[in-house]
Amino acid sequence: MQAGPSGPPSSGPSGPPSAGPSGPPSARPAGPPSSRPKGPPRRSVTSSLSSGEEMDEGAFEKLSAQNLVRQAEIDRREKVAELRKVKNSKRNNVILLLLLVAVFGGIALWPFSQGDVTNNPHEFSQEVDILNRNDPTHPAAWEAQDIELMSQKIWDGNDEFSGSFQHDLNLPGIPIEIGGVTTIPVDVRLVSYRVDGANTGFRLALFPTPCNEMQGQTIESLGTQYKYGSITPMIIGMEVTVSFEVPAGKYCLVFEYENPPEIQGFRATIDAEVTPHWNQPICAPLAAISFLLAIFAGIGAHKAGKAWKKVAQPDSPDKKTTEEEVLEQAEEERGTMSETGEQTGEGEGDILESLSEQPDSTPQIDESVQTPEPQVTEEPAPAEPAPAQPEQVGEPVTEVAESAPVAEPAPAQPVYTDEQLRALGWTDQQIEWQRQAEGMQ
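Given the sequence above, the corresponding structure tokens read:
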């Protein structure tokens, strides 16, 4: 029995209980408590430089190399954009110059003709009919198309004095005479309508002054480059072309017959078409200059394109020349021939190896051919109980029975005839198989 505690029980707490908390309870924050991350506080992400630690030398070199590569790529892209602008600008210059060549060349070759010799409104008409047609109130007056055609003509059909005409001609250009450079070719095409039978020669001149200012001037007083005379009679409908080459300026074109018509009146006797090539001395040099500038601009554009491609596409291979392509093709053919030779050598080695292994496989083929023999020896077993003919079979039967399990054929087997094998119980089909096997051996 366990003894109890020794002595009297301990006395309880002395004095009154301690007072509770003084004052009202402290106010709590309204609303739910703010959520806080669970777990230990995370460390602030600081670099090795901000934390005061020294960066590894290899990491610093790697970062420096990456910065260099990034800066090089930025510089390359800026240079590509700049070279692209230069390339596009040069190409636009080439296109603009070629357009100028086409425009100036077209203007230089375009004929600016005056007059029209394709039709004669006075043909088959008397002077009375022509006068009636010139009267707008007459029923037979000219139609609008005829009036427009006659206003464009250079002829003597619009005047009562037939046999001559005058026409003001303005040739723009450089008024300095330089043969073949500043001088202007002028072609005059003449057609005769004269019907009075007096086919005579004519004179044609370019007076270097307007027609209303040539008082007192005659064709004989002009220089040879400004006049032309012909004693050959002009037949009706015959076309004659006269060419001049004069400096730029204002001129008066004058035509006269050597023998003017005796009867004057409103009748057409001569018609002309003038083509002054003033556009050639002005536009031809401009077209040539534009073409030369286009050539130089094209060379510059080509260089700018190569420079842009070199920076924008550094990995793009340049165009190979014909010689390089031929050499590469020859190298490829040579490599193909060498590979073909190696494959041929390997094929010959395989053939030799197969030939060397072929004698070992020959017995297997013979054994496969002789596979029917065990069947031949086992099938005639029911015929063995016939002991009445030991003299026909004799000892060879025992040899055949003993040699049957052997895979190699017995050398004495071919001595058996068909009758002997039939006596042993062989069928004709088995005998035929045996003869085939012996023939194959």
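The longest strand covers residues 184-192. Try to locate this feature in the token string yourself.
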